[in-house]
Amino acid sequence: MNQVKPYYLLQRAVNGQFYFELKAENHATILTSETYIAHSSALNGINSCRVNSPFDHHYLRKTTTTQLGLRWYFALRAANYEPIGKSQLYPLSQSMEHGILACRRCGPIAVLVDRSQRVA
Question: Considering only CA atoms, which of 25, 24, 22, 26 is closest in space to residue 11?
């Protein structure tokens, strides 16, 4: 049986811009990127995620209030403090920390799956 590897799923948004999601082995989304106008910029964002994701000091731990109450999420930023992407909202801070660990583990080794050139 083939083991699924973590992967970066590169896609186009409805507005035509590019974005990527870092996916775990179980296909769960760990991180969703900012949007990029150019395909090459999105590829640079993926490379930045590979380089910066292993290091805890590149993660910002944040909270927000929703109708469901307080929620936690993380943001990954590059060494130059530019944003790379954000996580989903988590109901517990411990869940967010597990998400960060998954990003640190998967980010450097994820392969690229480029679906951005598909025509709908």
Answer: 22
